Amino acid sequence: MLKRLAQTLVLGCFLAGAFGPSLAMAGAPDPTGGATGDATTVTAAKAGAPTLMEVAAEVGHSKVAINMVWTLVTGFLVMFMQAGFAMVETGLTRAKNVSHTMAMNFMIYPLGMLGFWLCGFAFMFGGVGALGTLGGASGLDQEWTITLFGKPFGLLGHKGFMLGSDVYDVAIYALFLFQMVFMDTTATIPTGALAERWKYSAFMLYGAFLGTVMYPVFGNWVWGGGWLSQLGVNFGLGHGHVDFAGSSVVHMQGGVIALVMSWLLGPRIGKYNKDGSANAIPGHNIPMAVIGTFILAFGWFGFNPGSTLAGTDLRISVVAVNTMLASAAGALAATLWVWLVRIGKPDPSMMCNGMLAGLVAITAPCAFVSSGGAMIIGLVSGVLVVEAVFFIERVLKIDDPVGAVAVHGVNGAWGCLSIGLLADGTYGDGLNGIKGGVTGLFYGGGMTQLWAEVIGVVTCFITLSILSVIVFQIVEALVGNRADSSAEVHGLDIPEMGIPGYVGVKMDKFSETPLSR
């Protein structure tokens, strides 16, 4: 009896010392919060002090809960980016197509989501393995793999179709939500590039293909444990193709799809003269585009920091600051470049695209670079987006009403390549099975990481170009891709949607922008 009493006293003293004064002062006011949440809260329904195992179990559960809530909340932020895309794309196109453009941005969300639920998620993440930050769920464990050069090449997952009973797990569901909204970002990029002449039925079929097949293939190779992520393990190329939050997986994929489909669809009527010179077709609502840009910039704080899948990974502060700095540098660089070098005016649409270009470019390297690196990445992206817009319009003769290819395609590629140059080696230990931080050329890492990024970028361009041509031709055979020329001239709202975007607004027949109410 005396021995048990002595053990109890010793344990009580240990817990009181280990977990703060609140054990000895139960019920005392706690104005700072420093004594709230001590060991006595671990098992509230149990009499007496909790055991150390109970404390450890509660700490582990709380850590996973923090990570899961973080992942879900940042996913909600990314979902709200859809409103930003809708406003940017609609603002930068003409008033006669407002209903049509908005409807594409709206419907891509349910279309892409249902396709991703049906099979896209399984193809992309069916073989990703254990979800460590979300509690170690290991149900996603089936990957189609081939052997080349004596090395395994993961090609596609095949578990998790329709989130069946074999993956009925809270961690897997959290991953699904977060990754679904990323897929939706890719899906909505081409809706801006193909705006004002894309038949709505063709868009609907594209949306179904995107979520099910087009997006998951390359995504599996980078984020699902596929062969690009294993270039380091298999061939000694850095950490393999690294893309922290989606410069290639999300943005470049969308940009390549936009490029190929815009080329196949052809320019809007009146965009080019017989001599090949381009006519400016201004958007109808710059304020809408500016507000949409800020919504996107806000959502990016979910996009990039959320990609840790862990609120307990304190690198999120570095990721968030780098994201913010690159967006500012991109906006400033684009503004000054278009003003001083290109057209002599600080074009507001280029300001917006400059900020978005900076955000796209920093998405891949945001966790691996310093603030100085983020600034360099943003400044380069601001110049790149302006030059790419002019090159695509005037040299390639591809009509992209909102500059989606320049923003997402070109700067998605630049963002990945910048990792191979500017990653400073302070983060990424263990990523893709490689020890040490991700290190670029300018920080003593040699060329290996840069080569991995180059391979990933080239693979993305080739793969998505092929898939885009295939999908375009299938849709062309089924319903046709291009809207009727008469409908395009008069606006797609009434012929395609049955309702105008603006009711009771008089349009100028030349500019097709609102004059009065």
Question: In a nutshell, what does this entry contain?
Answer:
The protein is mostly helical. The protein has helices at 2-18, 52-91, 98-125, 170-193, 200-223, 231-235, 247-265, 286-303, 316-342, 348-363, 371-394, 404-422, 448-478, 485-490, 493-497; strands at 143-148, 151-157, 506-507, 514-516. Strand 1 and strand 2 form a beta hairpin.
Which terms would index this structure?
517 residues; mainly alpha; Ammonium transporter fold; two-stranded antiparallel sheet; 15 helices; 59% helix; globular
Please estimate the helix content. Answer: 55-70%
Count up the helices.
15
How far apart the termini lie comes to 90 Å
CATH level-two architecture: Orthogonal Bundle
What is the strand tally? 4
Biggest β-sheet: strands ordered side by side in the sheet: 1-2
Q: Class by helix and strand content?
A: mainly alpha
Q: Report the CATH superfamily.
A: Ammonium transporter AmtB like domains
Helix-strand string: HHHEEHHHHHHHHHHHHEE
Low-confidence stretches: 5-27
Shape: globular
* Biggest beta sheet attributes: 2 strands, antiparallel
The residue-averaged pLDDT reads 91
**Overall tally of structural domains:** 1
Strand portion: under 5%
How much is the radius of gyration in Å? 26 Å
**What CATH first level would be assigned?**
Mainly Alpha
